[in-house]
Amino acid sequence: MRKLLLLSTSVLQNGKYLEYASDVIKSFFTENGVSKIVFIPYAAHDHDAYERKVKDAFSEFGLELNSIHKSGNQLSTIKEAQGFFVGGGNTFLLLKTLYDLNLLEAIRDRVVQDGVPYMGASAGTNLATVNICTTNDMPIVHPTSLDALGFLPFNINPHYLDPDPNSKHMGETRETRISEYHGIPNVCSPPVLGLREGSWLQVKDDQILLKGCIPNQCARLFIRGQIPKEHEVNSDLSFLLKM
User: Fold this and answer.
1) 8, 10, 67, 137: which is the annotated catalytic residue?
2) What's the rounded Cα separation, in Å, for the pair 203 and 223?
3) How far from chain centre, in Å, is Cα 223?
4) What CATH number does the domain containing 103 carry?
5) Is 159 tagged catalytic?
């Protein structure tokens, strides 16, 4: 019972917070009968400021949102939630906080067993996958484990960037870093979907659809031992659930 909306980013250039995906977000929650969303702000340090920003955006969508950090009983809040939104920021901080508060398993159960809709952006999208090994973030804190929620049996690299032939930067590209992840011997590393800006995944049960608002700027799939492959808007990626 998977109902997931996983965005690569929260903001596109010159746009407002979540503006580029506003119609998709509204449809995702309303079609699933959700009017009140529990916000998980732990990828940022200032939870109050983060809630204000997100709450303003969701109010424009006609949706009520409240942050779990203000809850008197966080576990009860998760058990009663109609839907979740996990925002972006630092993925290591997000995961460590959820482990420290013993909330990770509770969120997993609500989404997997009860079919509660889950929306993630950036770090929140990383959290929905096997582990956070393919995040772009710095390990500013040390989580108990790098294992994440595991709603999907593959990893995602949000904000995926292609090499710029005009750049003077000589460091590793995103593709190089993902190949390093797949290059560790005697380790079964899952596929990695490089999700470009303006792209998202819509997941319902056993179907994964790749969506996006920028033509020809969608996703690049990395599978260990295979040549990376491009996937365009409206591609069906459900085959990744069986790998």
Assistant:
1) 137
2) 20
3) 19
4) 3.40.50.880
5) yes
